[in-house]
Amino acid sequence: MLIRSAKEDVKYVMFSREQIAARVRELGSALTAKFNGEPPLMICVLRGAAFFFTDLCREMDTLMDMDFIAASSYYKGTKSTGSVRLVKDSSIDMENRHVVLVEDIIDSGLTLEYLVKLFATRNPKSITTVAMLDKDVQKPNRFDVDFYGFKIPDEFVIGYGLDYADYYRNLPYIAVLKEECYQ
Ligand code: PRP
Questions:
Q1: Cβ atoms 40, 98 nearer than 8 A
Q2: Which of 104, 121, 142, 175 is most buried, judging by how many CB atoms fall within 10 Å of its CB?
Q3: What is the number of alpha carbons within 13 Å of residue 44 lying toward its C-beta?
Q4: CA of 30 to the centre of ligand 1 (A)
Q5: Is 61 among the catalytic positions?
Q6: At what angle do helices 50-58 and 17-35 cross, to 10 degrees?
Q7: CA dist list (Å): 2 to 22, 77, 78, 115
Q8: pTM for this predicted structure
Q9: What is the pLDDT at residue 36?
Q10: How far is the CA of 83 from the centre of ligand 1 (A)?
């Protein structure tokens, strides 16, 4: 594991701050249109979605309430191992509510699949899934996210909430990490 500085560890910037802001604005408008008149319960899946969530909510022109949950998928190196754990649950009653689950990235799809199954048992009116990034992963029957910001190739990305060993979440852009950092 090699962590130096963003200047040294970033291979290239995939999406700039401006590109992200423009896309989040579009997603906010689409969600505003979807829930107009019925305040959704916005749920942030910590920790990665923190920046996307707060930006997205501010781009939505509707009443809403918010909660924060934490899920953790186990990784071996840079690959998901396939097990998901709910580290912090929601304390808000979801019955008959439009629930919006907000993620930074959908990779194997297991986290969102797990969360949707779990929250469906709480009788919400609907569950909508949103991810800033949708990774191009070749996996049969992978969970299909309802709204996404950008489709990306299968690369290790950091920034705008996404981490490498918990570093680089605070980068204001989304970038590809140099292979030498994790090889
Ligand atoms: C990452 C990311 C998603 C999940 C996506 O979370 O934030 O929640 O993995 O992967 P999947 O589609 O393969 O399930 P992580 O467990 O790294 O926690 P973090 O958000 O705290 O970084």
A1: yes
A2: 104
A3: 18
A4: 24
A5: no
A6: 60
A7: 32, 12, 13, 32
A8: 0.95
A9: 78
A10: 11
For the beta sheet containing 41-46, the strands, ordered from the edge strand earlier in sequence to the opposite edge, are: 79-88, 65-76, 41-46, 98-106, 126-135, 147-152
Dist CA 128 CA 73 (whole Å): 20
What's the whole-number mean pLDDT along residues 106-130? Answer: 96
Cα 48 to ligand 1 centroid, rounded to whole Å: 7
Backbone angles phi, psi at 2, to 5 degrees: -130, 120
The residue annotated as part of the active site, out of 107, 134, 154, 163, is 107
pLDDT at 79 over 70: no
For residue 47, whether the previous peptide bond is cis, meaning omega lies within 30 degrees of 0, is: yes
Residue 103: helix, strand or coil by DSSP?
Answer: strand
What domains can be seen in the chain, in order of their start residue? 17-152 (3.40.50.2020)
